[in-house]
Specification:
The chain is α+β, with helices and mostly antiparallel strands. The chain has helices at 4-33, 102-166, 171-231, 282-291, 429-437, 441-450; strands at 41-47, 49-71, 77-82, 89-90, 95-99, 234-236, 241-243, 253-254, 263-278, 295-299, 307-319, 324-331, 343-360, 365-367, 370-376, 382-386, 388-393, 396-401, 408-412, 423-426. A hairpin with a 2-residue loop joins strand 14 and strand 15 (370-376). Helix 2 runs antiparallel to helix 3. Residues 1-24 form the signal peptide.
């Protein structure tokens, strides 16, 4: 070695300085290993309250007309009057159209005249029957007279036959009485034939009466039909509703039962709203419907006030493609707030749950073990609480278990939380905005001073 003393000094310096360097490094590592306190997480909370919550099913629906009537003419003719304007509301029984009645009025008069003739024929047949019955009575009287004469002539014949046998009278005289008896017998036979003839004539008059009565009935039917056809010249509205645009103008010829209707009437008072619910809710809906009528609310866009109605129809078939069941509610619609084809939000109210524990729905989170909320404890730290939700109504949820009245749950800021995390409670934005909207007392006084 050329410089042994210098090398020894360097070695001593290095060995002396090494512990000091290690000590400084260890102190720095110890200071960095200490945990710094985490800052409080700002959150919005809401209390658990006890209130009455309705049990509802929400859906969307389509408004449908209560009925749609296509008005057609039952007869052909010229349209001479139209009693409405396009799009007008009409009442049941209002005159819509009038068709020229003159051809049908003429047919009615012809039918009435033919009926008068039928009536005269019936009267004639009845008179003939009366005359025939009189002739029968006369023929019977004649027969009775001839029978009496025959009895007397037969008595004389027998008497004179006895006298002739004793030789008291001549043969000529006896033959005369025999002839008288034969003539009387012939008269009796003729009277019987006359009775038969008059009876046959009477039976004929009965047939004439029956035919005349049939003609009379047929004539009455023709008159009724002519009146009905005449009534078709005036067409009245069968329902309350709103008419469409007119398809045929006044003065045109219309056909009986044409393919195209003259006008269409849509009944909108009352009116239907058709909507669907999941098939799992079907049993619940039927259960509550048995207890009482179920109220239904329909909300139109940009209108906060609902239209009130009630459930009137539950379909018996489940749609296999969507897993839903179709329901229908009826609304009075007296104020014309909904119209056919309109889409609405629907709330079906099943019942009300009394004294339900309620929290905002946005406070509820879903984890591996199910639904839970963050509950703020007295020391402003949070804990995870598993809950069971009984029902959700809009932005509120009814809690079946897991919470108590007065506890506070986090409704905003959950994603930055962990168990036992420190929180700083802040007001909701809507509350802050409300405060901003309200002027301070000093500002109000300042405005008054300026005025």
């Amino acid at each position: 070695m050329r410089y042994p003393l210098l090398s020894a000094l360097i070695l001593i310096s290095v060995s002396i300085g090494t512990p000091s360097l290690l000590t400084a490094c260890g102190s720095s590592q110890a200071e960095s290993g200490k945990e710094k306190p985490r800052p409080a997480v700002p959150v919005v909370v809401a209390p658990v309250v006890q209130k009455t919550l309705p049990i509802q099913i929400r859906s969307t629906g389509v408004v449908e007309a209560y009925s749609t009537v296509a008005v057609k003419s039952r007869i052909g003719g010229q349209l001479i009057e139209v009693g409405f304007r396009d799009g007008q509301d009409v009442k049941q029984g209002d005159l819509l159209f009038r068709i020229d009645p003159r051809p049908l009025e003429a047919q009615l008069q012809q039918a009435i005249a033919a009926q008068a003739r039928n009536q005269a024929q019936l009267q004639q047949a009845i008179a003939n029957q009366v005359r025939a019955e009189t002739t029968i009575a006369q023929a019977k009287a004649n027969k009775d007279r001839d029978a009496a004469q025959l009895q007397f002539a037969d008595f004389q014949r027998k008497s004179y036959d006895s006298l002739y046998a004793e030789g008291a009278i001549s043969r000529t005289q006896a033959e005369q009485f025999r002839t008288n008896a034969s003539v009387s017998q012939a008269n009796v036979n003729a009277s019987g034939s006359a009775i038969d003839t008059t009876v046959a004539a009477a039976e004929s008059t009965k047939a004439d009466i029956a035919a005349a009565q049939a003609n009379l009935a047929a004539g009455e039917a023709l008159i009724d039909n002519a009146k009905v056809q005449l009534s078709y010249t005036e067409i009245y509205s069968p329902v309350d509703g709103r008419v469409s645009s007119l398809k045929v103008n006044q003065g045109n010829l219309v056909k009986a039962d044409a393919d195209a209707p003259l006008v269409t009437i849509v009944q909108v008072k009352p009116i239907y709203v058709t909507f669907t619910v999941p098939e799992k809710s079907l049993a619940q809906v039927k259960q509550y419907q048995k207890r009482s009528k179920l109220k239904v609310q329909a909300f139109v866009s940009n209108d906060k006030k609902p239209v009130e109605g009630e459930l009137t129809f539950i379909d018996s078939v489940v749609d296999a493609t969507t897993g839903t069941v179709q329901l229908k509610a009826t609304f009075a619609n007296l104020d014309d707030r909904i119209a056919p084809g309109q889409r609405v939000d629907v709330i079906l109210k099943l019942t009300e749950e009394q004294n339900a524990l309620s929290i905002p729905t946005q406070a509820i989170q879903t984890g591996q073990k199910g639904q839970f909320v963050y509950v703020v404890k007295a020391d402003n730290t949070v804990e995870i609480r598993q809950i069971k939700v009984a029902n959700a109504v809009g932005n509120e949820s009814a809690i079946a278990s897991g919470l108590e009245v007065g506890e506070k749950v986090v409704v905003d800021g959950q994603f930055a939380l962990s168990p036992n995390a420190k929180v700083e409670i802040k007001e909701a934005q809507n509350q802050n905005s409300e405060k901003k909207d309200k002027p301070e007392k000093g500002d109000q006084q300042e405005k008054k001073d300026k005025k």
